[in-house]
Amino acid sequence: MSAPSSGPVSDLPVSDLIERGYHVLPGGLDPAAAGRLLARIRELRAFGSELFLSEEEFDAAPQYVGVNPAPGRNLLERFDEELAFVERDAGLTAAVGGLLGDDYEILLKKLICGVPASAVPQWLKTRIHGNPVNNLGPYVKPQYRDVTYFYGIDFHQDLIDYKDREADFITLYVYLHDVGERDAPLFLLENSHKLGGTLFPHDLSKDETGWTYGDRKGGQVHCPQHLLVGPAGYAAMWHACTLHGTQPDAADHERLSLRYLIARKPTRKDTGIDAVNATLRGPLSLTATRNDLDEAGAAKVKANSVNEA
Ligand SMILES: O=C(O)CCC(=O)C(=O)O
């Protein structure tokens, strides 16, 4: 993926990331191409209760790490051609190039499924109730771990997975079908990137106008809540310190999205993201990003802000 030199150039992604922490691609991506990819995915996978291990199977050998897509185990690896509607879209590549430089690199791309309540077994719902991060990978049969499955995740920064790494990357999310309020849309907290990296779970309290977010060092920012809802091909990108999350999928069908992490080259320090980072009032990297897990990787904290949103 590299930016075609003919793409439209715009400063809007950079100013949006500075001001709000996210940018929605005007006009989105080709909805028909999103639909074609979705149809191919549905030929390969059903997203019902057959995804899951039984409680006995899970308890026989609980595994909390290595349960997400990885090279060689990633459903999207077979769809290079179908992903051209994202990776070669002139508007998108210009926006990403404006933020990260034309020689940006894709760190990761994967399919995310927001699993509908109807597909999650009752034993599992009971176990994970109130957990901040309900990535269902540990409970999914090994052959299906080429997709990431969520049943909601509390407000977090994507820096959470990158201890000691500078916030030199963005997340790009693409909806493969229409996503409304009941389809587990992403909730984004505007301005939250301004405090830089902070430890998960985050210090958040809700009022009528949004959220008050603190860095536990005296810094505070007010964050209006923005829901990412839109048609097939809807595409949004955000800073690695922008808080976002999802509630459990209340619809009776899954939500399927593409998630890309895209970085600037380590040798470059002159890109849009560097201009954004220069405006932040907190650290650009963290030596510890979360304290909600025990040593095996299981949840040891029961707390969830996004479910109050
Ligand atoms: O798609 C979801 O439900 C949540 C995904 C998310 O927040 C993430 O991957 O960082």
Mean pLDDT across every amino acid position: 93
Which blocks of ≥5 consecutive residues have pLDDT under 50? Answer: 2-9
CATH uppermost class: Mainly Beta
Largest sheet: 10 strands, mixed
Helical residue percent band: 10-25%
Quaternary form? single chain
The radius of gyration computed from the alpha-carbon positions, rounded to a whole number of angstroms, is: 19 Å
Shape: globular
Q: State the CATH architecture.
A: Sandwich
- The termini sit apart by 36 Å
Q: Which ligands appear in the coordinates? A: 2-oxoglutaric acid
- Tally of individual helices: 7
The share of residues in extended strands comes to 15-25%
Write the SSE topology:
Layout: H1 12-19, E1 22-24, H2 31-44, H3 55-60, H4 84-87, H5 90-100, E2 105-114, H6 122-128, E3 133-135, E4 148-156, E5 169-175, E6 186-189, E7 203-207, E8 210-214, E9 220-223, E10 225-228, E11 235-239, E12 244-246, E13 255-263, H7 272-277
Parallel strand pairs: 2-4
Antiparallel strand pairs: 1-11, 2-13, 3-4, 4-12, 5-11, 5-13, 6-10, 6-12, 7-8, 8-9
2-oxoglutaric acid is lined by residues 112, 114, 150, 153, 158, 184, 244-246, 257, 259.
